[in-house]
Amino acid sequence: MQSNVPTQTASIRVPWRVIVSCAIGSVFEYYDFFIYGPLAVLVFPHVFFPASLGSVKTLLAMGTFVVGFAARPIGGIVFGHWGDRIGRKPMLVATFSITGLSTFAVGFLPTYAQIGIAAPILLTTLRIVQGFGLGGEWSGAAMLAAEHTAAGNRGFAGSLVQAGAPIGVIAAMLAVAMVSGWLGNRGLIEWGWRLPFFASFVLIVVGLFLRMRVEESPEFTAAQKRKTIPAFPLVAALKRAPGRILCAIAIHTADVTIAMVLGVFVLGYATRVLHFSPTIFLIALISGSVANLIVAPLAGRWTDLAGASTVLLTGCALMALWSFPIFSLIHHFGIVGVFCAIIGGQIIISIIFSPLAAYFRELFAPEIRYTASSIGFQAATILGAASPLIAQLLQNAAHGATWPISLYFVAIALVAGACVLAVRGRLHIAPTPHRGCAQTVARTGADAPVTTGGRDGAAHFIPNGGFLRGDRNQDALPEDGE
């Protein structure tokens, strides 16, 4: 007997071309972050600022690093608006072009000795342009991958996009370490710092080639045909889903906070206070990134089997439990403790970060999804970026003790976990079809919804022309407060 239930022909099981084209954006984002950060401390104070400024030039160099974060929310709003209006694909080509060319251009900048004050102005300008482009990168890439993938594989597909982050970290650290080791500190400052930026050209060419060849999201195309796209997605997102946006911010802040504290604060604390070798710490960070990369697809598959809420709650619980052991291990167990603390932290980051692509897809309706997820992701990035400073202030207030930082971790984990619980009944990440639920399909009319029993008791609505395999109709998502 032929079924009257519509089929979802646009989404495929694992769209590898889409995933690779989206993941390369994450690789580039984290590659840039982890080459610019060390160079801003080691090189740029000597290259882009006059020696007469003394220690102030280091602060100014770090300021050029921070200013890129300030531009991200603006980029998120702009690219989110047009991504929800005209499509994900053109925005991803635009964001990657802007980010890639601005990063590549840093390698060509003249120094302060050559053009004076114009040098740091040009550097700051490129950082602002770069931050603007990155503001729309993750949300567009993650949503395109999730929307192209059939239910039961979205967690896994999304996690492969997220896996680009540790790949970018590893590539950046290896690039800086190789150039520094090859040329020494003097050669690095004189001209070697340009090489990692020049190397980014390879990623630009490959990334643009792949992104030009992907198709538009089938869910966005369906929303266009239904004519449900609002004129101003930002206004619609803030009106329809303010609570869910706040929850997205709180959840992503958890993994960003761990990453920033481990990569910035703990680096300084372990080398300056505990006198660990920076090289040893760098190797530990690379080892943690490898662990992150291994865990990411496992967490993605777990998301498909158990649901994103379960994975996220587990990650938040582990974050709270790991908050105190991190510093105890570093204090009392030497190099082994440093490796255990960082690898454990990176595993927790992967558990929280990997489900987010699939989770954000279910959190927001397709016509506001790019905008809403951009706001949530970039706001969380800014909050997380402030965590090393907060950690330092807490330690200073406690006269060098680290227990307030651990309590800070616990508080963030509890808030994130509470947000996951608050919206858990308002979305459903579809389980793998053959293991998820016994579906009963009955249609009583052309526009009648089909309801199916989900593993966690949620109802799945499949209207005419909607999505199959346990997807919930995004148009049926209630507004916050309903």
Topology:
Elements lengths: L15 H27 L1 H4 L8 H30 L2 H19 L5 H4 L2 H17 L2 H12 L5 H9 L1 H29 L1 H20 L4 H9 L6 H8 L1 H32 L4 H29 L1 H25 L1 H20 L2 H8 L5 H17 L1 H11 L5 H21 L9 H4 L13 E4 L5 E4 L20
Antiparallel strand pairs: 1-2
Helix pairs in contact: 1-3, 1-4, 1-7, 1-8, 1-9, 1-10, 3-4, 3-6, 3-18, 4-6, 4-7, 4-10, 7-8, 7-17, 7-18, 8-14, 8-17, 9-14, 13-15, 13-16, 13-18, 13-19, 13-20, 14-15, 14-16, 15-16, 15-20, 19-20
Quick structural overview:
With 482 residues, the chain is mostly helical. It contains 21 helices and two strands. Strands 1-2 form a two-stranded antiparallel sheet.
How would you portray this structure in words?
- This protein is mostly helical and 482 residues long.
- It folds into three domains: 11-232, MFS general substrate transporter like domains (Growth Hormone, Chain: A), CATH 1.20.1250.20; 242-363 and 386-429, Up-down Bundle (Growth Hormone, Chain: A); 438-482, no CATH class.
- Helix content is 74%, strand content 2%.
- The protein has 21 helices and two strands.
- Strands 1-2 form a two-stranded antiparallel sheet.
- Helix 7 packs across helix 17 and helix 9 (164-192) packs antiparallel against helix 14.
- It is globular.
CATH structural fold name of the largest domain: Growth Hormone, Chain: A
CATH architecture assignment name of the largest domain: Up-down Bundle
Distance between the termini: 40 Å
Oligomeric state of the chains present here: single chain
Radius of gyration: 23 Å
Helix count, per DSSP?
21
Task: Estimate the mean pLDDT confidence.
Answer: 83
